[in-house]
Amino acid sequence: MMESNLIKRLQQKTVLLKLKMKVKKKVMETIREMVERQLKIANDEFQASKPTHSPIPAPKITLVDNGPPTTKPDDLPEEPLISPPLELFITPISQPIILSTIPPNPLSKDKGKGISLN
Q: Disordered: where is this region (predicted)?
């Protein structure tokens, strides 16, 4: 009888271990599926954030021949290539600078003292 109880317990433990293994396997599959879904969502968001329009093409440069120049270089007027010095633009002041004195403030404690601008 003891042997039969022992066999039953071993069978129960075996069944429990098999169930645990199935649960672990199912949990691992679920985790893998969740990770795959999250990766797909992240990849889709990344692809959606990329610009969908094609880049603007560079402008094409086309050379145009208008014939010979209308003015010969020798016919151009002689102009200075450098702007004149600054002192040529400064004009002297023709009016004299008037110096004045500010009268003393009658409400001030410093009677008789004025400010002179010299």
A: 46-81
Answer yes or no: pTM beyond 0.85.
Answer: no
Q: What is the pLDDT of residues 80-107, one digit of tens each?
A: 566 655 555 555 566 566 655 666 666 6
Task: Report which secondary-structure segment, H or E, holds 38.
Answer: helix 2-49
Instruction: Classify residue 9: in a domain, yes or no.
Output: no
Place 21 in a pLDDT band, splitting at 50, 70 and 90: very high
Rounded CA gap, 67 and 44, in Å? 58
Is 86 inside any structural domain?
no
Residue 29 domain-assigned? yes
| Amino acid, single-letter form, for residue 50 | K
In a domain, 114, yes or no: no
C-alpha span between 20 and 12 (Å, rounded): 12
Specify the number of domains making up the chain.
1
Answer whether 38's CB lies under 8 Å from 31's CB. no
b/e burial code for range 44-64 (CB count within 10 A of at least 16 → b)? eeeeeeeeeeeeeeeeeeeee
